[in-house]
Amino acid sequence: MVRPKLFGTDGARGTYTKEYGPGLINAETFTSLTVATVDVLEPQYVIVGSDTRDSSPILSEAVIMGAVRAGAHVIDLGVAPTPVIGWCLSELQSPNAIGVSVTASHNRHPDNGLKVLLPGGQKLSKAQTDAIENTYWESTLANSVNNSMPGSNVDEPRLSERYISYIVEKMEVTFGERPLRDKVFVVDTAYGAVKKFTPSVLERLG
To answer: Annotated catalytic sites, by residue?
Structure first.
């Protein structure tokens, strides 16, 4: 069987499909690819966030399922920009944590993808992506089952709130307390992942 390359220069991306089959951008692949990622990197925690594409909720659930199945503890941020996941990794201060962003970045809307972040927001090395892909294909072709003790999935609104507080504090250090009070803003987040954070930041700034 031909093994299509899964990871490109910035994660695994492609056109989302509801069809079943290995190597496709679908829930089946995202679950198995996450299991392989946890098997190779051995994190204790996986922080998961996603963009606002129509396919992101089902793919995020697939990532969470794979991480829990592989024995990791999941912190689910829900909709969150990729840089927020990187910030949360730093805030968590654990060397045994990774982030997974379900996003295709600037790609067209029908696409989606999976991007893995290491502590400090670093990307995977080629050696790591090769190891993850090899593990994925070996387990897929062998139809093997991961026998790790299952992990857990925890919604973590506190991390999102801490990120908002961090942004507000930085702004107020520079511009003073509530620098936007008595001002009116019309904001178009273009249905981006920042839509979850922008209103709260603006309200707290005045």
So the answer is: 105
Segment holding 12, helix H or strand E: strand 12-15
List beta partners, residue 153: 74
The whole-angstrom separation of Cα 170 and Cα 41 is: 33
Residue with tokens 């045994």: 96
Strand ranges for 43-194 from DSSP E: 45-50, 73-79, 97-102, 111-118, 122-123, 152-155
Sequence letter at residue 25: I
How many other C-beta atoms can be found within 10 angstroms of the C-beta atom of residue 35? 28
pLDDT in tens, 112-146: 999 999 998 889 999 999 999 999 999 887 765 55
Cβ pair 7, 1 in contact under 8 A: no
